[in-house]
Amino acid sequence: MGSESGGREYSLTEIFAIKFVLADILIIAALLLAGPLYAVAITALFVFTTFLIWYLTQRTGTETADTETPRETDSTAQRAETDRDPVTKLQDRYAAGELSDEEFEAKLGRLIESNERADAAGIDTAELELELERSE
Q1: For a disulfide at 7, which of 3, 29, 35, 65, Cβ 3.0-4.6 Å?
Q2: pTM: predicted TM-score of the whole model, two decimal places
């Protein structure tokens, strides 16, 4: 719940507090200017809208939590996997027993060599996908 102009985000408690302050002002003005029947009608309207806002925020809050949590978890895990550097991935595979000593040393050597060639050519390797990863 926040302002549409990109400003400050308001909590549900703050929204209800603002609503009740404005409702008090309007009810007092209705009592003074229009009479007690209008003040009672306005009070009933504010009570109804308060429960309606509470119900809608509870319903949308539950739906949002149910639908977005798995997606965020998947994207976070995927981002963590892609953020790891190739040497760490290679070390993890070696530690898991997927690579023999010779394979590990050969792949590590190719990785270092390709990184040195890229540095000599002035290419930023952080954005590149390594051929080592694709060839496996």
Answers
A1: 3
A2: 0.35
At 16-35, the pLDDT tens digits run: 788 888 888 888 888 888 88
Sign of CA dihedral 33, 36, 39, 41: negative
Residues 85-106: tens digit of each pLDDT: 788 888 888 888 888 889 888 9
The whole-angstrom separation of Cα 51 and Cα 31 is 23
Give me the residue spans of the domains in the chain.
12-82, 86-134
How many other C-beta atoms are found inside a 10 Å radius of the C-beta of residue 99?
Answer: 19
97: left (phi over 0), alpha (psi -120 to 50) or beta: left
Please, are residues 136 and 89 in contact by the beta-carbon 8 Å criterion?
no
